[in-house]
Amino acid sequence: MSSPARTILRTESKLFLREPGAMFWIMAFPTLLVVILGSIPSFRDPSKGLDGARVIDLYVPISILLSAIMASIQSMPGVMAGYREQRVLRRVATTPARPFDLLAAQYVLHGAAVVVSAVLVLLVGRIAFDVKSPGSAGAYVLVLTLALAACLAIGGVIGGVAPTARISTAIGTLVFFPMMFTAGLWAPVQTMPHGLRTVVELTPGGAAARGLDQAALGHWPSAHFVLVLVVWALVAAGAAARYFRWE
C-alpha cells in the first residue's frame, strides 16, 4: 500500500469512528437483535417445522447478513455520494493520492466493521443462547466473504451513480428492504413456500442465508449458493466500475 493510501485510510478510519449512528447499526444492532430474539422462550425451543433447529439458531446468520447489508447499502453509498457532492473526489485527484484510494478505504472500513459485528453476533449467540459454533468454519468464512463482496459491490453501484448523499439514501432504502426480506429477516428462507424460496435463493441474501446455515451445520455449502454469490459479486462489481462517476 502506498503512503498516500495509508494516509487516507488512517484519516477515513478516524472519520468512520466518529459516526456513532453507523457504528451502532452495523456493529451493535445485529447483536442486540440476537439478544431480543433469543430472549423469547419459544425461539429457544427446537421446532419440528425446522427439522429440530431453533429459531434463534437461524437468526444468528441472518443478523450477520443484516450487518453486511446495513454497511453496504445504507452506510457506505452515502459516504461515497457525499464525497462526490462535495467535490472531495475531484480535490483528491490533484494530490499524490488517487480517488480510488478513498473508495478502497471505504470498502475496507465497512468490511472490517461487518467482520467485527459477525464475531460479536457469534459470541453472544454461543454464550447467551447456546447457539452452536459453525460446524465448518472454513465454509462459513467463505460464504460470509462472498456475501460481503456481493453486498459491497451492490453498494458500490448505488454510491457510484447517486449524485448526492440524499439520493443515495433514498435508493439505498428502496434496495435495503427487499434485500433484508430475501435474507430472511421477516421469515427464515427455510420456512418460505417452495416457489418463493426457489426465487429468493437466486438473490445474494437468500443464497448467503442458506449457505451460512449449511456451513453452521457442518456441511459444505451447495455449489448453487456459492455460484449465485460469485455471479452477483462479479456482475455488481463490473457495473460499479463501469458506471462510477468521479464528479
TrEMBL record:
Q: Which GO terms describe its biological process?
A: response to antibiotic
InterPro entries referenced in this protein's UniProt entry, alphabetically: ABC-2_transporter, ABC2_TM, ABC2_TM_bact-type, ABC_2_transport
GO CC, sorted alphabetically, is:
ATP-binding cassette (ABC) transporter complex
The membrane topology of this protein is: Multi-pass membrane protein
Location of the protein in the cell: Cell membrane; Membrane
Q: What is its main location?
A: membrane
Keywords, A to Z, come to: Antibiotic resistance, Cell membrane, Membrane, Transmembrane, Transmembrane helix, Transport
For this chain, one GO molecular function annotation is: ABC-type transporter activity
Which protein family is it in? Belongs to the ABC-2 integral membrane protein family.
PANTHER family assigned to the protein according to its UniProt record, in alphabetical order: DOXORUBICIN RESISTANCE ABC TRANSPORTER PERMEASE PROTEIN DRRC-RELATED (PTHR43027), TRANSPORT PERMEASE PROTEIN (PTHR43027:SF2)
From the Swiss-Prot or TrEMBL record, give the protein name: Transport permease protein
- Give the species this sequence originates from: Aeromicrobium ginsengisoli
